């Protein structure tokens, strides 16, 4: 092989290696979480992230020794001035799924939670014009509380981690797991308090998950519609979409009330036992 060919091959291999190493990484910090009787805050850190409009992370842990009691945003999505929300999507024994999304501040109050597909345009120009966080930072902070003393350390695992880039495409991230140990049994009252907080977190996720899913679906549909008719110069906003949904709902309710209050139509002669044009005792005498 000529020297030039060797240089070309080396450059190609180097480029492939760089692409292989370009996957972002989500890491649990600290790598060894030590609890006694008090809760501990665990950070989910990212590095090597592209411009990020959202993320989804699933954690798996030992449900006999610890429980999740709280979640808060780590500030990464908001670091460039964007408005974001980090919420629990699913919570159950030994398993937690959280999601973070750039939020539409203008429509947040109308939609309750305000989580939306970050690639959807807004009245101010949309995610295409907004600066998004990239590189490294803290995605979220999860609080774990002890339930019972553990025999040695137990794994705290990232079962899945996905970022969403500016275009809305998923970007798989590598996970760096941690270990958790509980050195002593907590007092009964603290254990009961932790379990109550965990139940409240799970109920909140269950009650808001459906509404958030509906809102995200409508927002994605609105985004697609806007992109399709954008060339026609028609200006729509999220509020218009929600008003249209409300109008459709009211129309359905009105139709149900109208048809529900009408008496059933007479069938044959059963409704007129007298047989005389609706007159009681009804034989017609000519």
Written account of the structure:
With 286 residues, the protein is α+β, with helices and mostly antiparallel strands. It has one domain (22-227): Immunoglobulin-like, CATH 2.60.40.680. Helix content is 31%, strand content 32%. The chain has helices at residues 3-20, 108-111, 188-229, 238-261; strands spanning 25-29, 32-35, 40-60, 66-73, 84-92, 95-102, 133-146, 154-165, 170-172, 174-176, 178-182. Strands 1, 2, 3, 4, 5, 6, 7, 8, 9, 10 and 11 form an 11-stranded mixed β-sheet that branches. A hairpin with a 4-residue loop joins strand 8 and strand 9 (170-172).
Q: First CA to last CA: what distance?
A: 118 Å
Based on CA atoms alone, the radius of gyration comes out at: 29 Å
In the CATH hierarchy, what is the architecture at level 2? Answer: Sandwich
Q: What's the CATH topology name?
A: Immunoglobulin-like
Count of β-strands: 11
Helix/sheet category: alpha+beta
Q: In CATH's first tier, which class applies?
A: Mainly Beta
Q: Estimate what percentage of residues fall within beta strands.
A: 25-35%
Q: Largest sheet, if any?
A: 11 strands, mixed
Instruction: Tell me the series of helices and strands, N- to C-terminal.
Output: HEEEEEEHEEEEEHH
Mean pLDDT: 76
Helix content: 25-40%
Tally of helical segments? 4
> What form results from the Cα inertia axes?
flat
Number of domains: 1
Uncertain runs are 15-19, 105-128, 210-227, 230-235, 269-286
């Amino acid at each position: 092989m000529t020297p030039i060919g060797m240089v070309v091959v080396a450059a190609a291999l180097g480029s492939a290696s760089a692409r292989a190493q370009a996957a972002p990484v989500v890491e649990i910090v600290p790598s060894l979480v030590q609890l006694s009787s008090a809760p501990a805050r665990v950070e989910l850190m990212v590095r090597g992230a592209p411009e990020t409009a959202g993320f989804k992370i699933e954690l798996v842990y030992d449900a006999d020794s610890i429980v999740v009691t709280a979640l808060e945003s780590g500030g990464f999505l908001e670091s460039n001035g964007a408005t974001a929300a980090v919420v629990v999507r699913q919570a159950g024994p030994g398993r937690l799924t959280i999601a973070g999304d750039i939020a539409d501040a203008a429509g947040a109050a109308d939609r309750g939670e305000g989580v939306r597909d970050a690639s959807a345009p807004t009245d101010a120009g949309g995610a295409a014009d907004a600066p998004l966080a990239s590189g490294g930072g803290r995605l979220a902070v999860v609080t774990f509380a002890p339930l019972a003393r553990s025999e040695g350390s137990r794994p705290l695992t990232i079962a899945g981690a996905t970022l969403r880039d500016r275009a809305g495409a998923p970007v798989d991230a590598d996970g760096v797991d941690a270990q958790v140990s509980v050195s002593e049994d907590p007092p009964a009252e603290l254990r009961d308090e932790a379990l109550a907080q965990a139940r409240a977190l799970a109920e909140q996720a269950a009650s808001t998950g459906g509404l958030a899913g509906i809102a995200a679906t409508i927002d994605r549909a609105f985004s697609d519609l806007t992109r399709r008719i954008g060339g026609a110069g028609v200006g729509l906003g999220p509020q218009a979409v929600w008003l249209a949904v409300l109008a459709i709902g009211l129309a359905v309710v009105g139709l149900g009330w109208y048809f529900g209050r009408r008496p059933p139509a007479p069938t044959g002669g059963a409704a007129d036992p007298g047989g005389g044009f609706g007159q009681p005792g009804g034989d017609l005498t000519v």
